[in-house]
Specification:
single chain, alpha+beta, Alpha-Beta Plaits, seven-stranded antiparallel sheet, six-stranded mixed sheet, 7 helices, 29% helix, tRNA(Ile2) 2-agmatinylcytidine synthetase
């Protein structure tokens, strides 16, 4: 039976190693290559930055969905555990969370945990206890294992659907292109095109593609944010600049 699985990792790097986003991407690629399922885009979720929270650089978790047959779930989890133990950086405290949302008895508790992790200092024990109660896979893979907090929060925030932004740039478009909203909606990772205030552009209106365009998660949708463009460039809209995406 096919299921949708959410996979999140946190605290896999150090100040000179490849980042957690790259580790997540390698796991997603392996899932595709092994024929276990089809991975969706990776989202980055910013968690609380606080003196009492150990982190490498930004304290952000990475999460991605996989549509897959249920029977491949166990080998996927086994692979991801081994991969983190082999590939994570020295001095990191990796955590892995794997959840099947439709099998989580109280999804609201998982979402609430993710939202709290953006505002509060949470203990590892609390994360492990919640995962156990909800039947969610949560495991430590080196160091102090404190990455389990961010991994569980990453799944909760992706499940919430109104936090985070796409890792990397939107595939299929390039800076300087002028595309209609209709053409952008044809991209596999774009569900909607709208302004930050929620207002939408007309399907035939042109959008100027800026540097490294990304979607953000809003109400469960992957949304490409735009803003009114300078009339001199000949389009009604332009993608939101990278510096303004940092708050998502």
């Amino acid at each position: 039976m096919p299921v949708r699985v959410l996979i999140a990792i946190d605290d896999t790097d150090n100040s000179v190693s490849r980042g957690t986003g790259e580790i997540a991407s390698l796991i997603a690629d392996a899932i595709d290559q092994n024929g276990w399922g089809v991975a969706g885009f990776i989202s980055r979720h910013q968690l609380l930055v606080h003196p009492d929270i150990p982190y490498t650089s930004h304290n952000s978790a990475m999460c991605f969905p996989v549509d897959m047959p249920q029977e491949y779930l166990e080998p996927l989890v086994s692979f991801a555990c081994g991969f983190l133990e082999r590939e994570c950086a020295e001095g990191s405290d990796p955590g892995l969370c794997v959840a099947v949302p439709e099998q989580v008895p109280v999804a609201a508790d998982l979402i609430a945990f993710g939202r709290r992790a953006k505002q509060e200092v949470i203990t590892k024990g609390e994360a492990l206890a919640l995962a156990g109660r909800l039947g969610v896979h949560l495991s430590e893979h080196g160091g102090t294992g404190h990455g389990v907090i961010g991994a569980l929060a990453g799944v909760g925030l992706r499940l919430w659907g109104s936090d985070g932004r796409m890792r990397g740039s939107l595939a299929g478009v390039r800076p300087g292109q002028l595309l209609t909203v209709r053409e952008l909606l044809a991209q596999p990772d774009v569900d909607a095109v709208s302004c930050a205030d929620g207002s939408t552009a007309g399907l035939e209106e042109l959008v100027s593609i800026g540097d490294k365009p990304k979607t953000v998660l809003r109400d469960g949708a992957s949304v490409l944010l735009v803003r009114p463009a300078d009339p001199s460039i000949g389009t009604a809209w332009e993608t939101l600049p990278r510096r303004l995406l940092r708050e998502y």
